[in-house]
Amino acid sequence: MDVKALQRQLRDFAAARDWQPYHTPKNLAMALMVEAAELLELFQWLTPEESRRLTIDAADRERVADEIADVLLYLLQLADHTGVDVEQAVLAKLAKNARKHPAVGGGEYK
């Protein structure tokens, strides 16, 4: 995934529709939270097992994928509008998390 290319594509998409005046950091953060809530709504009140099964059915998985994409698109736009380099921020945060939560078992994710 080329983050910078996606951000350019999102800028072009917004510009073609004259949406730039509405894409302020505040508005993008609010839209991000709305989309995150829509993702959460798909899993609300499900048991852990039901939530795992939600991704087995193709139609349900597509709904989950759509909401995940919406969250990511708004997050990328917010980062773009605030000057945050997403790749750099993620790597820095992973390093902070590794220092804060050192590995104890050394096991791999299964």
The largest β sheet comes out as:
none
Beta-strand percent range? under 5%
| CATH-level-2 architecture | Orthogonal Bundle
Q: Determine the N-to-C terminus distance.
A: 24 Å
What does this structure look like?
This protein is mostly helical and 110 residues long. The chain has one domain: Helix Hairpins. It has five helices and no strands. InterPro entries: dCTP_Pyrophosphatase (IPR052555), DCTPP (IPR025984). One of its GO terms (biological process) is nucleoside triphosphate catabolic process. It holds the Pfam family MazG-like.
What are the SSEs and their pairings?
Blueprint: H1 3-16, H2 25-43, H3 48-53, H4 58-82, H5 86-100
Protein name: Nucleotide pyrophosphohydrolase
GO molecular function, one term: nucleoside triphosphate diphosphatase activity
Keywords: Hydrolase
Summarize the structure.
It contains five helices and no strands.
Key descriptive features of the protein:
110 residues; Helix Hairpins; mainly alpha
